[in-house]
Amino acid sequence: MPRFDMFTSIVRTHLLGALSPHKYAGGVLVAVALFTTACSDGAGRLNAPPLFAKSNMASSVVQSVAPDFIVLANASVTCTDGSITGYVGTAQGSPTGSVTETSCPINGTILVGDGASQLAFKNFLSTYAALTPQLGDVCTTLTGTLDGVILKPGSYCYDVSATVTGVLTLDGPSNGVWNIKVGTSGTGALTGTNFTVVMAGGGQACNVTWWVADAVTLTTSAFKGNILAGVPITLTGGTLNGHAWSKSDVTITGTAVSGCSGN
């Protein structure tokens, strides 16, 4: 049985930089700097003050809960012609809650509305709420498709929806942390088509988190990071190296979903 009580710690470890300073608890092992307005150069590089997890901390947290919930939804997870490597769960039990597989091998345990998946979902909701943008939060503002953009570790945000395509490079050391929020004004969806996230400089996919106010729709994309969505997640084709956690449902069609590891 995985140690689900550590679920919140995974995401908070990776995302503490996104919270305003008054929310930090004593003993937090993350160094945080205030963030300024975005700036870019000819190479398409955006720099935020660096955000790093203490060496080896993220790795030890991920290992302590493995295998964890790769896909987590409120009521339903539907997977067709894809694959999932890791735990899959729903908060709701049968018949409201369900995991439907059609030509979709799941290499992991399926938990529908049992105590473990309900606790994991409760912790997810708490973490999602804690990361909800607050007055006084500061981040580097993003605009456009992100094609050709290079982001150093830090906290970034879209005020409203984000429509992304092309290649985004996340360039930083193995303990670098990227926090990207979409819909900080209160509403906003993430839509990616032929969108590729590339980790450079030793950066780890599990140290990347995408907090999204509304829906996440990814089509033929090679996506990396942990998705925390306010409404449904829809994945079509491509790959996801990370986690898909939704306050609503998750639908996967032809996507290979696998977990990630941090430093």
What does it look like?
- By secondary structure, this protein is mostly beta strands.
- The protein has one domain (about 5-260).
- About 15% of the residues lie in helices and about 40% in strands.
- It has helices at about 5-15, 55-65, 115-130; strands at about 30, 45, 50-55, 70-75, 75-80, 85, 85-90, 100, 105, 110, 140, 150, 155-160, 160-170, 180, 190-200, 210, 215-220, 220-230, 235, 240-245, 250-255, 255-260.
- Strands 4, 6, 7, 9, 10, 11, 13, 15, 17, 19, 21 and 23 form a twelve-stranded parallel beta sheet that branches. The protein has a nine-stranded parallel beta sheet with strand order 2-12-14-16-18-20-22-5-8, with no helix packed on it.
- Helix 1 (about 5-15) packs antiparallel against helix 2 (about 55-65) and helix 1 runs parallel beside helix 3 (about 115-130).
- The longest helix is centred in the middle third of the chain and has 17 residues, at about 115-130.
- The chain is globular and about 45 Å long.
- About 50% of the residues are buried.
Task: Outline the fold blueprint.
Blueprint lengths: L6 H9 L14 E2 L13 E2 L5 E2 L3 H9 L3 E5 L2 E5 L2 E3 L1 E4 L7 E5 L3 E2 L2 E3 L2 H17 L8 E2 L8 E2 L2 E5 L3 E10 L6 E5 L7 E11 L7 E5 L3 E4 L2 E8 L3 E4 L2 E8 L3 E4 L2 E3 L5
